[in-house]
């Protein structure tokens, strides 16, 4: 069994790295906060007997050799970065629980056939560059030069530049990629971030599929002008057009059963109280487990947005930030998770993930399995995010049981 | 007559102080740009024979003595600050034309009975603190401790703190105030920022009244959450509620003949692509020459906004940033302006100002008169703001004729 107290203390302890004044944490990739949290967690990895290194895209990796040195590696992991003012569990639980799992194997003197690597992936959230799962894309071998040169943070810094500033050379990033037959599969424990487990009164769930996040950037070009002297008639106000589009997004997503559409970032230019907005930029995060449904909603939104903009004399530009396909989780791994859960007396239900996860980048190459721990009120990306100590420990034990089975 | 070439060169020359990469200028109060532009203009004032000082709120003042030393002073002025990415004429024309007017009196060896003071007022636009006409409020004696301690810029710096950093001590600001019987009246030349003069084919207009800007700040408190895992139903998205309110503002202002309503600033918190907006702040700039109409529209907007927020479970807070009453210009000064215009062969029409001006702060205490110079396409608060060299010179000449009459 895992050490429940230590797991809980470590989750609590990481809170102070990037703590905001508003109860949450902000830990963006390639920042001082990320460096600090990685240094602390690499200490935890070493304590658990792991051999630690960082790969070319900044993934923190702790390796435990298997009985069979040439055997495929079992990857287990999650992430340490956060959204702005996010919670303590989204990411850290999965990394710290994986470390506890190998520590438990170590304590029990159990060596698995396959080597195990615990990975803390670089920038899963996409909070800094509006482009996420950077570390897992690197390991999958699909992080491109275009990716690291196109996406910029709020200060205009590209991923490549941010990597450089943090001591990573993007020109060597292909060395992070793993061959198809070098990896046996990927297992992750994460908080559910939804309410299904809570409503089912179950601490742990087994994920069958993950919704695919599509991130778009809308730019509306209107005409700035004086707020006091420009009559309402004839204005080309980029923000008024935006308001209409926001309501279309809410409505179109709401018409479907499981589609969600969110505008989380919005900037007004030039941004003076007495200046009519000449330009507005905003992001759309659109998801569904069914990619056809999601892309149909996308098309409806864009068509209606174009009509709105035409009627108002506004120029509309829509750019894709990331378009991730939904993923189906591996059936064998689901079966092993079921066995492990049963061993701990749990009747782990099958759930679907509305949130994206690093495993999405691996699904074309390797079997992917995910466990969810129950979230309080389904709240996430918010300081109130919470999973109880008991649920964390139970989920970590099911993770341990799954790793033990899969790595043998 | 004024020196038309020098006036034009000086207007062009100031462009480089605070020039943005986008064709406009950004000159906020109590910044290095403001310091530079004031230093340059104080040189122009000295060249015109003025005795220059800065008062306790940072107004730059050049004084020309009158024949009668104890006589009331005639104030003439405008401002040198700008909105973000604003134009070259809004403000500078009035200051530089006033300097040209006294330079012309000097060149002609004419001394008026009343002393004349040319004033470049501190922060007319309100761009930095969302609170404008700071210098003229100081001279009117109505700038309060609450004003300088409440209003903050985008970095949380109060007016008092910004003054301090620029070398001004707000605790002594009452020394900037002028006694009621120390001032004969206030005259300003400004660009129209509207299309009335252009459509009337007239270079110069006489202002009869000024619309009163009401600036409100709306804060909507909803609930942040994960964009991927939170179903559309049951969300308390502060930005969706905002979108509805923005359309109400556009509609309610549009229903009235002359009301204008503009949302120029909007911030989304926490501002992650995959986070439902938990809080939105935006400003409303609402104006009418008829204060009753304006305040009725305000009430309609707030009532509808409250209903929208209630239906969505959003907490709404509305704060007043500034509530300036509309102003009627002095009839005697309008008469003198008419005479001066006629002298230059102009049939200056009566116009109304949709934009606010420093004179608004004086109207309860002293006669206020304003001249407008024709604006190209009515564009202002925009890099395309333009008034021709000929129109600038004609307007400056009418200003000179008005000052000459009023100061004698
Ligand atoms: N699990 C999680 O919150 N992932 C972040 C990426 C996303 O789903 O927006
Ligand atoms: N004239 C002018 O643009 N004044 C700025 C204050 C305002 O009207 O918003």
UniProtKB/TrEMBL annotation, chains A, B:
Which branch of life, at top level?
Bacteria
Q: Which residues bind Zn(2+) 1?
A: 79, 90, 190
Q: Is Protein biosynthesis a UniProt keyword of this protein?
A: no
Keywords of the record: Hydrolase, Manganese, Metal-binding, Zinc
Residue ranges of the Peptidase M20 dimerisation domain?
A: 212-310
- Residues binding Zn(2+) 2 are 90, 125, 381
Q: How does it assemble?
A: Homodimer.
By what name is this protein known? Answer: Zn-dependent hydrolase
Species assigned in the record? Alicyclobacillus mengziensis
Biological classification of the source: Bacteria, Bacillati, Bacillota, Bacilli, Bacillales
